[in-house]
Structures are given as C-alpha cells and as structure tokens.
Amino acid sequence: MAFFLVTMTHPDGKGWGQHVGPHVAYLKGLIEAGKIRASGPVTGLGKRAGFIIMTVESREEVQTLVDADPLRPRRPDRRADHPRMGPAVRGLLGGVEPGVRAAS
User: How many domains does the chain have?
Assistant: First the structure.
C-alpha cells in the first residue's frame, strides 16, 4: 500500500453546493473501506478546493476511485497525476503504516 495525494478545485460555488452531499457520502464509504486516511477543504484559494490522502495499491486504483466520485464529471480540474507521497507522511498520520487503521 502507498499514500497518494488527490487535489481538486471547484470554481462554481453553487454547483458545489448542489452535489456535495453525494460526494461526502462517497468519501465516507472510502473512509470505512480504509482507502482514505485524511481529507478536507483547502482555504485561501478564492474557490472551493480540497485534498484527499488515499492509501491504495496504485495510481490506477486512485484514478478508478476518483472517476467514481459523484463530483468527478462536474470537476474537470481535479488532478490526474496523483503523486505518491513519501515516508514522511506516515509520521503526519500518527505513525501508522498504510493500510492499518489507528486505534481510536
């Protein structure tokens, strides 16, 4: 398993509001499946933006999950290169190895 970063921007605030419910429900399912380690909004960019840190096997799996997001057809500006994140990320996420859930 590896960490990957997904970023997105959505310049249409009204469009975001109309479709954010299914997007959040989709992300919750990925969290429950252990594929998302962190996600949230990014502020200060002048438009809606967010990030997702995924723990999956490959870039291809990231792209499949991104393409299945209900907001994907409405956000052509979501990055398609999904960089793999280095080992330092493990420390930021509580020292837990990818694919292993931290105790709550």
Answer: 1
